[in-house]
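Quick one - inputs below.
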Amino acid sequence: MARMARIAPLSGFPEWSPSERLVEAEVLSTLRRVFTLHGYGEIETRAVEPIDRLAGDSDAAKEIYALSRLRAEPGADASLGLHFDLTVPFARYVEERQAQLAFPFRRYQIQKVWRGERPQEGRFREFYQADIDVVARDVLPAHFEAEVPLVMARALAELTAAVGVPRAVMSMNDRRLVEGFYAGVGITDIPGALRSVDKLSKIGPDGVRKELEAAGVAATAAEAVLALAAIRTPDASFATQAQALWQQAGAQGELPHETFNAGVAALTALVETVNAAVPGIAYADLSIARGLDYYTGAVYETVLEGHEDLGSVCSGGRYDSLVGGGGFPGVGMSIGVTRVVSRLLSAGLASGSRAVPSAVYVAVIDEESRAASNAVAEALRARGIACEVAATAAKFGKQIQSADKRGIPFVWFPSADGHEVKDIRSGEQVTADPQSWEPPASDLKAGVVRG
Amino acid sequence: MARMARIAPLSGFPEWSPSERLVEAEVLSTLRRVFTLHGYGEIETRAVEPIDRLAGDSDAAKEIYALSRLRAEPGADASLGLHFDLTVPFARYVEERQAQLAFPFRRYQIQKVWRGERPQEGRFREFYQADIDVVARDVLPAHFEAEVPLVMARALAELTAAVGVPRAVMSMNDRRLVEGFYAGVGITDIPGALRSVDKLSKIGPDGVRKELEAAGVAATAAEAVLALAAIRTPDASFATQAQALWQQAGAQGELPHETFNAGVAALTALVETVNAAVPGIAYADLSIARGLDYYTGAVYETVLEGHEDLGSVCSGGRYDSLVGGGGFPGVGMSIGVTRVVSRLLSAGLASGSRAVPSAVYVAVIDEESRAASNAVAEALRARGIACEVAATAAKFGKQIQSADKRGIPFVWFPSADGHEVKDIRSGEQVTADPQSWEPPASDLKAGVVRG
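Output:
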């Protein structure tokens, strides 16, 4: 292949070594297992969508990678771009297949997405997302707003157990609580106020206050907004504080109060349900606003303890309709898999146990007897033991070195007089039968080492 | 999400339903298992490469999808394109990491690739490839030319067992055998002659003869080339025929004969080794030329019995160097996963056993007792039984219908007085304990149904 010109690592396009990939693969298989247990079926969608569908969200448009054929005939291709999330393609998938799908439709989707944003720690141009959504036809009962974060809470807890992902803390809010309150204190541009509050962690209370006042929000109302955003409890006690604040701020209006109360009740049920299943993970946090306009009920964000600088690793919320025409309410959350895996690797929290899958390196005495070594390998593989056969009939010392370099724990020496297998870590060598010998369970498969 | 404008299925970009995806997922996990058992570690590479690296192969250039940022600042991005195979990115990966990798390096890689070619049955614009390669530093022993097709032969046999992929027939040749023979009968433009013979199945012997003669090949030499290409045996008996043809065609020259003999010996070992492991799969077929210039030893193609119209589903060969500078000889093969899965589905050879992963649909008596239904679901999930809880407390008849629509075999009726579970296929209903009840093994997981 003479076509190679130069090599150029591309910023924002992470690639793992074979042992690092073990960590990512374990994360993905853990997610699949948990999602499947909860009744979520898998789909994959094509990587490309028509640009006009992708570009509808103006914030994302500048990050879209558009496609063109390198030597296209004029007008040969539709105007296509790479998807930047899994929601836009999922919406199109549901719209196309609405007649075939059974609703409520639970699906998970784990695929790479592409965003042409400036690369930085935790931000990539190509990365894995893992999404779950439940989408209903016409009516989505409220209990799904607890189910989706509960599934994600379990998934994150399993990731902690499996690969040492730091403990997750999920912050939850309800759009109705916030919108009812804002209306009650006299704010008219509620989406504008939400966008300002969404910047709280970046620009601080003073920054938010300035933005609100610049937008014409009264000083007392701005204070009330900030007081609401300061409420954060690990249980349902936020409700008492929020109700007290409603009184104290002089909020009023029958409809706003109804909306506010509906939000308080929903968030109470949400936090209690999730914490009952995964104790301590869920917080009511009335500062959570989520910039996206389409959320209408519960909203969620998740940080990893001690790694708050990564930002949210698992976010989402309830929306009124997945598709443009309406009628498909749903709840969804998305894990930033690559963001999590990248931190696991860079912080030394997890690594692959060895560079290759083989548990056994079968030595070759001489090229004439390679078939005997192959036969040993076949016998081991038939019982699920991964192995490789030595590349050359070098001196045994050199063959052991080759195994050691790959992190393979056992070297097998075939012999018609009686096979032997050596644990090259301890040096212990024993006679063994290829039809029955087994490595310790901990050595059988290449996996993830914590810490 | 109001950004949706229209829906447009895109020709050449296949998408599966959730139950069709089960078939694809089973194919992928079978391949992973076989590759892993043989010591092949997994990597994934980024989807994009610099255009100048991709476009080196002029035939592929017109099929490349180039990327641009939709609203890029001028000069913001390097000129990037989507990979059209997994070999170009793998070569770059090895070149970048040659200091860290242990050679011979066995890797597998399963990713989507993109080609802007005209879509037709079995040809896609986005599709999964599954590649294995062994790459050495400087010297690659000949036995790897048997190992790689052997791993693929096992993988294909496992796919037959797991999901009903039709029996595979692997045709093998050796470039040295052909090149030595061509040189022996006086052909000077050997790559040109190989390209003509590669079209044999498309343009027939007369077409090949015309092309060869137009290129200045003598009529007797063209006949000899066609006679060689007609040799096909399910064992090593091709060798006798090829040696006889060497004599009969009056081939000559010491170096060509040496090359020819080396190829005959290598192909003999290859066919015998692979057939010893997976009886009947390998044929010596001296018409196999493979268009790509970089193969230098064994070449392989694979068709599925009764589905020869699909073309080769698993091809590859031995090359002298993976990277431009030389020094990285290897052997690789690639399975066209989407081509195989698409045929399995369209020919009705395999389908998903149900539309959702759940084995159990937990009914809800009334909304007040939803927590009790959730508790049943949690008890089942803790023992690995996938389930979902009813969306609403509708009449039991309606809840059973919902389960039936999804293909869920069991409906659970929670009760403080004694739970009951109904097999909705037989109608049989029994008392059951959520801590111990298990579905039959065949119902536990959604899987693949043959035929």
